[in-house]
């Protein structure tokens, strides 16, 4: 029994994987933009070789350093845990650095230390990135053990721009005492405490660290780096009150997000959106122009679609490119943006989107987006086909802030907020932006709608209730048909941005 608890701390199940199979490929594409994986090895202070990878744009923009986020995995994790982070951050011009900590994955070392020695591994990575002229500022994103590692390191290096701390524990001793109750080990408390003291000596001898030193509450009051905390409400492994205690004593700017799930469950989309917004506001990535529009413009005829000030031209071209890749079965992670092969077809956007017979021409969709009234989209989260209706609100009403999955930073960073309500975030972020028009925002809302079932509720205006009921009834089928086609378009676009990640996260033990 005691040996199992010792292994729980210093030798959990180790992730074994093939980097070429479970990481992003050496050259891959996200949302029509090319990226590459650079593998490298670093040696920590104890002489252990750390297996690392760096996801960067391909080609890298000249004379423009980009911010970088270092992803820190959990106690049974590895580099492959950061696949989602790459999808979320790379389109915002934020590079992602990943590593296997010492004792984890393919790196050297026999034991993990739940953050104590891992913070030295993290220092090795930060020192390497500081010497890289292509990296501007650095952020940290840690989960479980990785969150504690980030917190311990952040207390020593205030130059870190920001941290995302997912499911950190406050005190290892308290956590071990809680797990005795969770796993219903029927022993008197004094016996358990004696066993923990024995484990402390064994772990100190084997792994060369003291479990009593792993106390996040001691460093939180001395850390001033902006931080976003996250925790699952049904987490029984590291219970949510651990993050609450750290959050309460944390000295820097902070925010906390609670979401459904357990310790190892996939995180919801709104949490990833919040992480993206947080890093975008903290790291301030430069707006690097994509080389795609100049290329795609040669091969796609926009037809009757007029690209005006209210349309994000770069995003539009990326969507068209993504749809073309889906149609030509080139939507794998190694697919490249379309070139100019011989006989490459030149089609208008309306023809391209209408080939499957499920879409109206894009002009109709854009006309729909740029109506006088806003369209508020509500997600019902249910499976199966449901009845669809729409709720229209005038411009004087409240603009609802949605959870976006777009690769465009405008839709992620302007109309959402980490700590405010929907009404507050909309009024603060959207009304203060002079560079993006309301029509542009409405277009981004529809183009970035996640692949979910959409429920919309229709509401007749008060002055039309009596005399216009028959006319409204005749317009409902036509309006419903138009929005069903718009939904199909948004689902198709969603498929162009992300594809299924092959790696399944190793559960913490």
UniProtKB/TrEMBL annotation:
InterPro entries: AB_hydrolase_fold (IPR029058), DNA-binding_regulatory (IPR052920), Hydrolase_4 (IPR022742). Residues 453-483 are annotated as: Disordered. Residues 68-175 form the Serine aminopeptidase S33 domain. Pfam families: Hydrolase_4. PANTHER family: ALPHA/BETA-HYDROLASE, ALPHA_BETA-HYDROLASES SUPERFAMILY PROTEIN. This is Serine aminopeptidase S33 domain-containing protein. It comes from Amborella trichopoda. The lineage of its organism: Eukaryota, Viridiplantae, Streptophyta, Embryophyta, Tracheophyta.
């Amino acid at each position: 029994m005691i040996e199992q608890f010792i292994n729980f701390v210093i030798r959990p199940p180790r992730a074994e994987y093939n980097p070429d199979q479970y990481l992003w490929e050496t050259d891959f594409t996200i949302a029509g933009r090319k990226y590459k994986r650079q593998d490298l090895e670093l040696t920590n202070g104890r002489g252990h070789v750390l297996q690392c990878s760096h996801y960067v744009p391909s080609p890298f923009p000249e004379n423009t350093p980009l911010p970088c986020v270092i992803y820190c995995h959990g106690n049974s994790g590895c580099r492959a845990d950061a696949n989602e982070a790459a999808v979320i951050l790379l389109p915002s011009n934020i590079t992602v650095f990943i590593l296997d900590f010492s004792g984890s994955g393919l790196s050297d070392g026999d034991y993990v230390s739940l953050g104590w020695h891992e913070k030295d591994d993290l220092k090795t990575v930060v020192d390497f990135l500081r010497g890289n002229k292509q990296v501007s500022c650095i952020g940290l994103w840690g989960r479980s053990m990785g969150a504690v590692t980030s917190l311990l390191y952040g207390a020593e290096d205030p130059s870190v721009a920001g941290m995302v701390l997912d499911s950190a524990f406050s005190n290892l001793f308290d956590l071990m005492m809680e797990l005795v109750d969770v796993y219903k080990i029927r022993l008197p408390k004094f016996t358990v405490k004696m066993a923990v003291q024995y484990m402390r000596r064994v772990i100190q001898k084997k792994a060369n660290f003291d479990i009593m030193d792993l106390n996040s509450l001691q460093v939180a009051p001395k850390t001033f780096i902006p931080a976003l905390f996250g925790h699952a409400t049904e987490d029984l492994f590291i219970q949510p009150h651990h993050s609450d205690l750290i959050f309460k004593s944390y000295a820097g700017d902070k925010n906390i997000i609670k979401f459904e799930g357990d310790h190892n469950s996939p995180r919801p989309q709104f949490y990833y959106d919040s992480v993206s917004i947080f890093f975008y506001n903290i790291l301030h990535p430069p707006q690097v122009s994509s080389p795609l529009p100049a290329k795609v413009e040669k091969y796609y005829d926009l037809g009757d679609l007029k690209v005006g000030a209210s349309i994000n031209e770069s995003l539009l071209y990326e969507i068209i490119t993504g749809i073309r890749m889906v149609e030509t079965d080139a939507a794998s992670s190694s697919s490249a943006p379309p070139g100019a092969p011989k006989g490459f077809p030149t089609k208008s956007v309306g023809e391209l989107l209408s080939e499957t017979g499920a879409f109206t021409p894009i002009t109709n969709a854009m006309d729909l987006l740029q109506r006088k009234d806003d369209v508020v989209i509500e997600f019902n989260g249910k499976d199966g086909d449901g009845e669809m209706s729409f709720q229209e609100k005038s411009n004087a009403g409240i603009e609802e802030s949605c959870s976006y999955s777009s690769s465009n930073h405008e839709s992620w960073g302007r109309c959402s907020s980490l700590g405010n309500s929907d009404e507050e975030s909309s009024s603060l972020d959207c009304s203060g932006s002079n560079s993006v028009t309301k029509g542009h925002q409405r277009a981004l809302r529809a183009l970035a709608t996640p692949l979910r079932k959409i429920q919309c509720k229709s509401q007749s205006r008060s002055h039309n209730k009596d005399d216009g009921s028959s006319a409204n009834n005749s317009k409902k089928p036509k309006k419903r048909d138009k929005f069903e086609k718009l939904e199909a378009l948004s689902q198709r676009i969603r498929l162009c941005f992300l594809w299924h990640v092959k790696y399944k996260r190793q559960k913490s033990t």
